[in-house]
Amino acid sequence: MIRKYGLNTSILVFMMTLIGSSALADSDPGTAGGKSPPENLRQAGYAAAQLLRNQTEAGLFPYDFDFSNGQSTSMDDISGVNLVRQSCALFALAVYLEHTRDPSTEKAIVRFLQMAASHSVPISKGYLQRTLETIGLYNRWQLWRPLREPLYKSGLLFSTEGPGKLVTAHQDYERALPGATALTLVAALKYRNMTGDERFDADIRHWKDGLRALMVDGRGVREAPHYLSESPYVNGQTWLAFAEYQAAFPGDPDMDTTLPDLEDYLLQSHQERPDKLFYSWGMMGLKVRLDSTSDKRYYDFAVAMSEWLFAEERNLAHSGTNSCATIEGIATFANIMTDRKHEPQTLTHTAIDYLAREMAFNRQLQIDEQFAESEDEMNTYADEATRHQGAFILSREQPLMQVDLTAHCLNALLLTDL
Predict the structure, then answer these.
(1) By CB neighbour count within 10 A (0-12 exposed, 13-18 middle, 19+ buried), where does 119 fall?
(2) 21, 188, 257, 400: least CB-packed within 10 angstroms?
(3) Separation of alpha carbons 69 and 106, rounded Å
(4) How far apart are CA 356 and CA 375, in angstroms?
(5) What is the mean pLDDT of the chain?
(6) Rounded to 5 degrees, what are φ and ψ at 371?
């Protein structure tokens, strides 16, 4: 059976052929001797177990541990970026739930969603803000950058009342980054779809409205409530969130304009100015929309973005560090291409070649018993190595365990699993 988010059979056969080929064995160190895709699910389970085992009572996950010096980030004061990466782990666990229906994963997702719901702050667009947006002033955020702080203090960037909500750890709007809300929303929708549990439906709608409050007419999504600038990460994450929301609630009139407006902007702007930082989240959002609508423009956009990405050799060069975040986008693209009968074969082969090479390398960055015994840093911090078995590090040379590295690799393993 082919899973919804897994690669289909033709990709898997091609990957297994590549992994066993002499061409792969001659590539960068660590890329030879690759494992067959079923091994991915075992490693994904190992990564998920690390997250579940270390989840706090509050619902969060340990942020990091640097095995080169024993330092870690305190969980007493959660930054906005930390929470975004926590939400990335939640998203990966929700994808894992789709593959496994694991009861322990369900409980962990509920615990995080309960935390997120109780720590969300209200937001909407005020009347004057709407007026300024309507006349196009917020479209020129570069001109307004020197005035950002006065606008913020004057309450012209957002209203602290209204139906929208943003996830934050400390009731702090400056830490209420929309990326965390978007990924929490996606995870909540996946959880609802897999379990039939509708207890978070009100929160789902509040988070949807919170993201809408940060959209600018004719543009994308602001990277934070107190900023006017946008982020390629946030644009991609929000597109994925709105795509999943529209698929779950097709009758919501909010999406009749919100989703098309965002898509028109993203498709045009990223055709004119492609951005690697947008690629993976954008490709995942695009895949949801393509599956929902079969609209050819999404397929054409996937091809155009990937042609640009693959044309730049440095984009596919082996960096020697964890590349799971890039894998997520390229694996999604490969899935799109192999679902089509007349796809450009060269692009598909380039994608699958990259997946085989990089996943063989990334799989070796997971902390396990053998890994811990072979690394001096792991021996120095043996208790932490044991605690975090299953997590992924940045590289052998930089043995930093960080929650988003594990999240991206968990999702990448599932995207390339049968």
Answers:
(1) buried
(2) 257
(3) 35
(4) 25
(5) 87
(6) -65, -45
Q: Which residue has the tokens 């779950």?
A: 248
| CB-CB contact of 136 with 216 (8 Å) | no
Residue 101, classified by CB atoms within 10 Å of its CB into exposed (0-12), middle (13-18) or buried (19+), is: exposed
Task: With cut-offs at 50, 70 and 90, classify the pLDDT of residue 20.
Answer: very low
Between CA 142 and CA 128 the distance in angstroms is 20
Residue 395 lies in a domain: yes
Cα torsion through 193, 36, 355, 414, rounded to 10: 10
Report whether pLDDT(130) > 80.
no
Q: Which of 281, 299, 316, 92 is nearest to 191 (CA)?
A: 92
Q: Rounded CA gap, 35 and 113, in Å? A: 35
Banded model confidence at residue 286, pLDDT cuts 50, 70, 90: very high
* Stretch (H or E) spanning 401: strand 400-402
**How many whole angstroms separate alpha carbon 164 and alpha carbon 143?**
27
The enclosing domain of 143 has a CATH number of: 1.50.10.10
Percent of the chain with pLDDT over 90: 69
Give the whole-angstrom CA distance, residue 405 versus residue 413: 12
Over residues 303-350, the pLDDT tens digits come to 999 999 999 877 788 889 999 999 999 999 999 998 776 667 889 999
Give a yes or no: residue 3 inside a domain: no
Predicted confidence (pLDDT) at residue 35 exceeds the cutoff of 60:
no
Tell whether 1 is covered by a domain. Answer: no
Domain range for 353 is: 9-415
Q: Is residue 294 part of a domain?
A: yes
